[in-house]
Automatic annotation (TrEMBL):
Topological category with respect to the lipid bilayer: Multi-pass membrane protein
InterPro entries to which the protein is assigned, alphabetical: Mem_transp_PIN-like, Na+/solute_symporter_sf
Residue intervals passing through the bilayer: 57-83, 95-116, 122-146, 158-182, 194-211, 223-244, 250-270, 282-302
Family per similarity comment: Belongs to the auxin efflux carrier (TC 2.A.69) family.
Cellular localization per UniProt: Cell membrane
Keywords recorded for this protein, A-Z: Cell membrane, Membrane, Transmembrane, Transmembrane helix, Transport
Gene3D superfamilies: 1.20.1530.20
Principal location listed in the UniProt entry: membrane
PANTHER family: AUXIN EFFLUX CARRIER FAMILY PROTEIN
Name under which the protein is recorded: Transporter
């Protein structure tokens, strides 16, 4: 059996456990928001800091990899803009756009150590630094133009939220520590390492808790289109750019893995805040999370050929 498939079992097993815990009521519904906030704003930045600060990027093609990752999201943004030619309300288009360009990097981070080793895990973590602000800027711009909101979006506040994103700050701090050779060992690093280990299991549980199967009935045609864009078109685009830029080996597999990840729950939050089709967005996240268990190993195997 493929190492990627084997590595995916526990990842999606924990996601399924999160769904079961929410359905059972063992964890009260209001608590999930707090768990997600703790994981996203405190524990995950610690994990990214430690992973990036301790990585040996001199031995991997980090430059071409980062360029291909950023280029992949830009290319997907252009491709998704072409769908505006189809007859659909503006808010629906914004959710379709988000479905094609947003990625759930936490699934890849959980998969990377077992599937790609330390080198792959370091590259997967590093990819967050340029792509999180890029994707957010694209999505906010589209939501501002075509979203339907009762109030004018505060672009200054949105911009401040992007540049102060804990995930971005954790990546930049880790990269700074890597270059400076500080906080890679010792009590501070050990504390962050211990805290960071809790982030991925908790985030995977919250992903499962957020699955909403009833939302799959919302605009099934558009959801099918967004799922196709995310799980079929995006990996192909990332693969093509990787080949074009000379990315190969583990780096190419991680790059294609970025393109093949499921949709991110953050897309639902933005759709709700800025006048997108939130229900359709929830359906997209649910569908891609389920189907990525099948499509991710296939795409990564293609990249490994």
């Amino acid at each position: 059996m493929s190492p990627v498939v084997i590595a995916l079992f526990p990842v999606f097993g924990v996601i399924a456990l999160g769904w079961a815990l929410r359905r059972s009521g063992l964890v009260a519904a209001p608590l999930w928001g707090g768990i997600n906030k703790l994981s996203y704003q405190a524990l995950m930045p610690a994990f990214l800091f430690i992973t990036i600060s301790r990585a040996d990027y001199a031995s991997v093609p980090a430059g071409s990899f980062m360029l291909a990752a950023a280029g992949g999201f830009l290319a997907m943004g252009i491709i998704m803009m072409a769908f505006r030619l189809l007859p659909m309300p503006g808010p629906v288009f914004t959710s379709l756009f988000q479905g094609g360009v947003r990625w759930n990097g936490f699934v890849l981070l959980a998969l990377a150590p077992a599937a790609f080793g330390e080198e792959g895990a370091a590259l997967a973590a590093l990819a967050f630094a340029p792509t999180v602000p890029l994707v957010n800027v694209m999505c906010v711009a589209v939501m501002t133009v075509w979203g339907k909101s009762e109030h004018t979006p505060n672009l200054k506040r949105v911009g401040l939220r992007i540049i102060t994103n804990p995930i971005i700050l954790g990546c930049l701090a880790g990269l700074t520590a890597n270059v400076a050779g500080v906080f890679q060992s010792g009590p501070v690093a050990d504390t962050l390492d211990l805290a960071g280990r809790a982030s991925l299991p908790l985030i995977l549980l919250t992903i499962g808790a957020g699955l909403d199967f009833t939302s799959l009935r919302a605009r099934p045609g558009i959801i099918s289109l967004s799922v196709t864009a995310k799980l079929l078109i995006a990996p192909a685009v990332f693969y093509a750019l990787g080949i074009l830029l000379g990315v190969e080996g583990v780096a190419l597999a991680v790059l294609v893995g970025i393109g093949a990840t499921p949709g991110a729950a953050a897309a639902y939050v933005l759709a709700r805040e800025m006048g997108g089709d939130a229900e359709m967005m929830a359906g997209h996240v649910t569908a891609t999370t389920l189907l990525a268990a099948i499509t991710m190993p296939i795409w990564i195997a293609i990249a490994a050929l």
